[in-house]
């Protein structure tokens, strides 16, 4: 039942369908072939996971910056977790092992998010700090030159998302920039 007074407390969280669509946008962008063919990301389960985490972090970072989007950010993160859980089960991971793997995924997400946040907070050279974080996490420590291109993409994507207002972000009325717009 929808309570009529809920509209006065906080903006509504997007519907599950909207969250699914936005998560689908994140996954589709993370699977963009240019990341794998040109920017050196390994086309593997781990490489794809890293790219999903990177794009999810970009969207959650913007949601966190907009006070109206706290519930949206949480719903999107929850959907990410349920998708990981479902994928593990689909791959045949047993019920007793899924929670342990989910804990490791959570630690990986929070570790990368902290590394990317810290890179952007670097006062001397945030672009180089981001390139090093991306090289370490996404490119397995190889290809700092490719990581610099990926960092330029991240900078472009963050700037694009920063121009999206709170309502548009949670409704999915925005797009990521092309993967090779900076390459």
Structural description of this entry:
By secondary structure, the chain is mainly α. The chain has one domain. Helices cover 67% and strands 0% of the residues. It is built from 8 helices and no strands. Helix 1 crosses helix 3, helix 5 runs antiparallel to helix 6 and helix 6 packs across helix 7. The longest helix has 24 residues. The mean pLDDT is 91.
What brief labels describe this structure?
globular, mainly alpha, 183 residues
Order of helix and strand elements from N to C terminus: HHHHHHHH
Average pLDDT figure: 91
- Number of distinct helices: 8
Rg, alpha carbons: 17 Å
Shape: globular
What is the end-to-end distance? 50 Å
Family: Belongs to the CBP3 family. Belongs to the UPF0174 family.
Domain Ubiquinol-cytochrome c chaperone: 38-176
Organism: Rhodopseudomonas palustris (strain BisB18)
Protein name: Ubiquinol-cytochrome C chaperone
Quick overview:
This is Ubiquinol-cytochrome C chaperone. The chain has 183 residues and is an all-alpha fold. The protein is built from 8 helices and no strands.
């Amino acid at each position: 039942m929808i309570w009529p007074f809920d509209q006065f407390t906080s903006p509504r969280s997007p519907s599950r369908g909207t969250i699914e669509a936005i998560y689908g946008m994140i996954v589709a962008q993370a699977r963009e072939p240019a990341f794998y063919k040109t920017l050196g990301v390994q086309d593997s389960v781990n490489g794809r996971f890293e790219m999903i985490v990177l794009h999810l972090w970009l969207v959650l970072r913007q949601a966190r910056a907009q006070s109206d989007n706290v519930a949206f950010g949480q719903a999107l993160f929850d959907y990410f977790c349920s998708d990981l859980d479902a994928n593990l089960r689909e791959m045949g991971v047993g019920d007793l092992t899924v929670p342990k793997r989910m804990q490791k995924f959570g630690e990986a997400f929070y570790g990368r998010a902290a590394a990317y946040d810290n890179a952007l907070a670097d006062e001397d050279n945030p672009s180089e700090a981001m390139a090093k974080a991306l090289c370490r996490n996404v490119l397995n420590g190889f290809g700092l030159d490719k990581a610099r291109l990926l960092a330029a993409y991240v900078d472009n994507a963050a700037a694009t998302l920063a121009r999206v207002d709170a309502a548009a972000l949670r409704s999915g009325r925005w797009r990521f920039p092309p993967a090779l717009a900076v390459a």
